[in-house]
Amino acid sequence: MEWLDEHVDQEQNLRQHIDLEVKRAQLKVADGQLQPAIDLLVGIKGLAKTAEDNQALVEINNTLTDIYLHDNAEKAITVIEENRNLNAVEYPYLLLYSKALKVNNQLEKSLTTAIKCKNKAGQHWTREDEAYLSQLRLLVD
């Protein structure tokens, strides 16, 4: 084992550890263990910042936002807005941002953001996303 430790790049090891912890947290979410998932994500977020792993930070923020959409709307906005400075891929960032705006009753801005997301998403835009956009249009009109 010592031989392996000597030949593995420490930064790469750190990033693998972060990725594993994010996946572990996502499994907790799927299992309904929201608070333990939040605790794990918040803890690993500091490590991802230290490692300057923007990809992991975006994934952490996306997962936290998805959790917060249901019970902490203001926190959802705060967390997803952090991705703006991390060069997040516009889909799903804009879709999550739109959903966070919606739960915060910023419907016009939510609709504008969802439309922008659809225009950027291309083939990634799903029927579920289209249903969300249609529902949002009805709420705004």
Mind explaining what this structure looks like?
The chain is mainly alpha-helical. The protein folds into 2 domains: 1-88; 89-141, no CATH class. The protein contains 8 helices and no strands. Helix 2 (10-30) packs antiparallel against helix 3 (34-50) and helix 3 runs antiparallel to helix 4 (54-68). It is globular. It starts with a helix and ends with a helix.
Alpha-beta content class: mainly alpha
Helix content estimate: over 70%
User: Whole-Å distance between the termini?
Assistant: 63 Å
- How many discrete structural domains? 2
Chain-averaged pLDDT:
90
Q: Report the radius of gyration as a whole number of Å.
A: 17 Å
Number of helices: 8
Describe the secondary-structure layout.
Elements: H1 2-7, H2 10-30, H3 34-50, H4 54-68, H5 73-81, H6 90-103, H7 107-121, H8 127-140
Helix pairs in contact: 2-3, 2-4, 3-4, 4-5, 4-6, 5-6, 6-7, 7-8
Top keywords for this entry?
141 residues, 8 helices, 0% strand, disordered N terminus
